[in-house]
Amino acid sequence: MLSSLIKEHQAKQAAKRVTQEQKRKECIAAANELTQALVDHLNVGVAQAYLNQKKLDAEAKLLHQGAINFAKQTQQWLALVENFSSALKEIGDVENWARSIENDMKIITETLERAYETTQGQPTSNQ
């Protein structure tokens, strides 16, 4: 009877060990599946963040290049406006010069007319 109890006890212990080992393996497999699912989920987020960062970097490069081009165009426009302003000043200077010449010519014309009138009013002594 004692040996049958021991055998029965050993059989129950072996069955419990098998059940425990099976549950342990199932638990490990479930933990591995959970870990893999979490890692996959995180990897998707990381991959998306990486792609977004690449897009942002590309957009930033384009924006930087656009800003450089805009600055160049602005400098060119400023140079054109400065040249135009200088040309307008020169036109104004030419206009003033022309007025000055015109006034000088009027003075000369008036002086010659007076001199002519004066000489016409006097009798000539050569006759």
From TrEMBL:
It comes from the Eukaryota. One of its GO terms (biological process) is endosomal transport. InterPro entries: BLOC1S1 (IPR009395). It holds the Pfam family GCN5L1. One of its GO terms (cellular component) is BLOC-1 complex. PANTHER family: BIOGENESIS OF LYSOSOME-RELATED ORGANELLES COMPLEX 1 SUBUNIT 1, BLOC-1 COMPLEX SUBUNIT 1. Belongs to the BLOC1S1 family. This is Biogenesis of lysosome-related organelles complex 1 subunit 1. It comes from Parnassius apollo.
